[in-house]
């Protein structure tokens, strides 16, 4: 049994369906991320788990118990808010001790556990400071310490990294991963930043318009998106209109519109016999899976087509090329500048060969 | 974190590129600013850099132009009268009211400076008593205002944005009618033939107790003091409560605080600066109030304000009136200083 079960939950605001019949299972001890663009319903789900909002239909069960009648202050669930919501009139120590004081624990225990948490969150020297005297990263650690001190069953994080600058965000990502591993508490993390979700999570639920598009491990989500939305939302991807010629075991033969035949991997998650020839869709391939070259290597690949370099973005470590294919489609290729044999840089206007391996890319049917 | 360059997402590369562009632009702007300084004074760049405040110097005349008139106004009509009053408190009263001259050709006439009035003030406990009573009345009025204003201010602050302004307007609406008229209205409302009196005395009658007069009593004075000054408590409180971040209450709730704890642990401490400004705005005017006790109070309800008024208009002892005013000013200033200190303590973290 999953620790947190969301069963057919729907939430409407007037005519707007914020959460549309969503079911999710979140296992104990995992780092679970709700990922999606703003307005996709991810924060609404979080607020319903915390108890600030109630589902119009469906159930939310924690350890098998329906939470519907439990008010937020009695749920064993804590939230780290996007703005951290630290109490400005309390010191760091007072902020962190707050849940224990509310629970009316004995003074000794409060003092001892506050000290432990301060130490654990590397805030021992800041105990008597006020929140506004802290940096963004320190404020976040206070918010985390305050939420974790009462050892909740579930920690909800509502875009807690959004307010930090890029460098600090990266540091805090690592801290979050380590913290979650340390405390072993289930984290439910909400974000619209796909790179953040990929870096942090054990499982990600990609949401769009109140529905869950796909729940998977980060690498599966990136490598084998099941829908155009997921493919497009996670990372960069090239999409070429395609039609199935033959769906066999081990591979799929596709006709790329205006280009010709390619061999693609079998369609993930769809029964092979479910795809008969003639089914239309898109062939999606990541820029880093696309090779370009003039001689040799690329021509040996099973799938290759001529093209013309139209744009390039040199970024030092990598170069992104935009290549115009014969069918008028633009394909993006990402090449490391340091790899052997990559010393040559193509120029705008160069005629090149564009290719990819037969086991790269995915076919997404309509 | 070791980055595999090929794995860097395009979004990350874009943001890195944008950052480079931004920092280049910043450097260019700074260089241009430096060049400008060079144009102005080739050899004094450090001076120019250090003296960025010089911009403020150029604005100085404008500053005086703007703040000058009110400054002169205060000088003429606040500072000067204040000094005149300080001087007056050290003089003798004139024979027919007013002040005796400081210098006189007739050595037998009353003239010169004296500490007599201050001696008089401290020699009779009655004045200290009136001061103490006035402070108690002011304190009672302030606390009553606070207790009544807090729920109202909270209600307005937690209402939808659209309905807040009309509600604030209702709070200040009484100001639209004349102060004295409103006080006289209370004379009718608390009079023996009005509903409150009839109700109270009816109740007392059934309990077998003697009837009371609501009017011309400390009760009537307090009611009117609270009535008049309530908006001065509501407005600063509302202004403070309205600024509270509602997510703090969500956080408190999430961390296990019930409604009572949320109020006393979060809302109330954060509203302390509002409470102190409101209390100051009520306490000080109440302390100097003489019209309300005059109209609604009985003979025993004399406050400092009445006492001072009496010195100038009744017994015509200007020096003693001045002394009383100065003593009042000193005590009020002490109160303001205390309130500012306490309020400042609250504000530090808000």
What is the element layout, followed by pairings?
The complex is a heterodimer of chains A (366) and B (350).
Chain A: E1 4-13, E2 16-26, E3 31-35, H1 42-50, E4 57-62, E5 65-66, E6 77-80, H2 92-102, H3 107-120, H4 136-148, E7 154-158, H5 166-183, E8 186-191, H6 194-200, E9 203-208, E10 211-216, H7 218-223, H8 228-233, E11 238-248, E12 251-256, E13 260-264, E14 280-285, E15 291-293, H9 297-300, E16 303-314, E17 318-325, E18 330-336, E19 351-356, E20 362-365
Parallel strand pairs in A: 3-8, 3-9, 6-7, 7-8
Antiparallel strand pairs in A: 1-2, 1-4, 4-5, 9-10, 11-12, 11-14, 12-13, 14-20, 15-19, 16-17, 16-19, 17-18
Chain B: H1 10-40, H2 45-50, H3 54-58, H4 60-89, H5 116-123, H6 125-158, H7 161-172, H8 179-189, H9 195-206, H10 218-243, H11 246-254, H12 259-270, H13 272-288, H14 291-296, H15 304-314, H16 318-347
Structure description:
The complex is a heterodimer of chains A (366) and B (350). Chain A is 24% helix and 35% strand. Chain A is an alpha+beta fold and 366 residues long. Chain A has 2 domains: 4-230, P-loop containing nucleotide triphosphate hydrolases (Rossmann fold), CATH 3.40.50.300; 236-365, OB fold (Dihydrolipoamide Acetyltransferase, E2P), CATH 2.40.50.140. The model of chain A has no long low-confidence stretch (mean pLDDT 89). By secondary structure, chain B is an all-alpha fold. The longest helix of chain B has 34 residues, at 125-158. Chain B is globular, with a radius of gyration of 31 Å. Chain B starts with 9 loop residues before the first helix and ends with a helix. Mean pLDDT of chain B is 81; it is low at 1-6 and 31-53.
């Amino acid at each position: 049994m999953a620790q947190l079960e969301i069963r057919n939950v729907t939430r409407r605001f007037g005519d707007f369906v914020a959460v549309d019949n969503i079911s999710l299972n979140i296992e104990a001890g995992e780092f679970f991320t709700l990922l999606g663009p703003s307005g996709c319903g991810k924060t609404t789900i979080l607020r319903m788990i915390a108890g600030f909002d109630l589902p119009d239909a469906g159930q939310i069960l924690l350890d098998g118990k329906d939470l519907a009648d439990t008010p937020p202050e009695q749920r064993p669930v804590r939230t780290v808010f996007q703005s951290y919501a630290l109490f400005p009139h309390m010191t760091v120590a007072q902020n962190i001790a707050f849940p224990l004081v509310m629970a009316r624990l004995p003074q000794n225990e409060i003092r001892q556990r506050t000290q432990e948490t301060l130490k654990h969150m590397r805030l021992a020297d800041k105990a008597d400071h006020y929140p506004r005297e802290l940096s963004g990263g320190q404020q976040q650690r206070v918010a985390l310490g305050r939420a974790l001190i009462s050892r909740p069953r579930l920690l909800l994080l509502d875009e807690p990294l959004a307010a930090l600058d890029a460098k600090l965000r990266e540091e805090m990502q690592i801290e979050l991963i380590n913290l979650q591993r340390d405390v072993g508490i289930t984290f439910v993390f909400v974000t619209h930043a796909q790179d953040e979700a990929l870096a942090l999570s054990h499982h990600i639920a990609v949401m769009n318009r109140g529905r869950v598009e796909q729940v998977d491990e980060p690498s599966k989500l990136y490598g084998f998106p099941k829908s155009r939305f997921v493919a497009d939302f996670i990372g960069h991807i090239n999409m070429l209109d395609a039609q199935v010629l033959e769906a066999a075991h081990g591979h799929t033969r596709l006709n790329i519109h205006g280009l010709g035949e390619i061999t693609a991997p079998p369609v993930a998650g769809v029964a092979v016999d479910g795809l008969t020839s003639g089914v239309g869709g898109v062939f999606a391939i990541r820029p880093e899976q696309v090779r370009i070259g003039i001689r040799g290597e690329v021509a040996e690949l099973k799938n290759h087509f001529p093209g013309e370099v139209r744009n390039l973005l040199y970024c030092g470590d990598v170069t992104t090329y935009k290549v115009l294919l014969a069918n008028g489609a633009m394909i993006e290729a990402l090449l490391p500048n340091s790899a052997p044999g990559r010393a040559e840089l193509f120029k705008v206007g160069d005629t090149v060969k564009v290719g990819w391996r037969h086991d790269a890319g995915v076919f997404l049917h309509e | 974190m070791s980055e595999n360059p090929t794995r860097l997402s395009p979004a990350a590369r874009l943001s890195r590129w944008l950052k480079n562009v931004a920092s280049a632009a910043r450097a260019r702007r700074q260089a241009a600013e430096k060049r400008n300084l060079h144009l102005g004074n080739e050899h004094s760049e450090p001076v120019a850099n250090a003296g960025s405040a010089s911009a403020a110097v150029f604005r100085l005349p404008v500053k005086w132009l703007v703040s000058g008139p009110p400054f002169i106004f205060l000088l003429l009509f606040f500072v000067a009268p204040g000094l005149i009053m300080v001087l007056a408190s050290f003089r003798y009263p004139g024979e027919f009211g007013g002040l005796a001259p400081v210098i006189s050709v007739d050595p037998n006439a009353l003239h010169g400076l004296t500490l007599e009035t201050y001696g008089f003030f401290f020699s009779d406990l009655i004045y200290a008593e009136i001061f103490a009573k006035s402070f108690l009345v002011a304190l009672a009025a302030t606390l009553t205002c606070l207790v009544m204003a807090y729920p109202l201010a909270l209600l307005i602050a937690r209402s939808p944005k659209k309905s807040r302004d009309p509600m604030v307007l209702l709070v200040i609406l009484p100001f639209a009618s004349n102060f004295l008229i409103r006080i006289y209205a209370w004379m009718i409302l608390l009079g023996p033939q009005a509903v409150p009196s009839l109700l109270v005395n009816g109740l007392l009658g059934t309990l077998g107790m003697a009837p009371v007069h609501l009017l011309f009593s400390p009760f009537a004075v307090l009611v009117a003091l609270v009535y008049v000054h309530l908006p001065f408590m509501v407005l600063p409180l509302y202004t403070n409560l309205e600024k509270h971040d509602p997510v703090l209450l969500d956080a408190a709730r999430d961390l296990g605080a019930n409604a009572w704890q949320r109020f006393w642990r979060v809302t109330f401490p954060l509203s302390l600066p509002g409470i102190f400004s409101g209390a100051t705005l009520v306490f000080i005017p109440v302390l100097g109030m003489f019209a309300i006790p005059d109209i609604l109070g009985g003979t025993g309800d004399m406050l400092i304000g009445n006492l001072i008024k009496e010195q100038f208009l009744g017994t015509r002892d200007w020096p003693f009136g001045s002394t009383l005013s100065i003593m009042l000013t000193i005590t009020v200033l002490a109160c303001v200083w205390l309130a500012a200190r306490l309020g400042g303590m609250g504000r530090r973290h808000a």
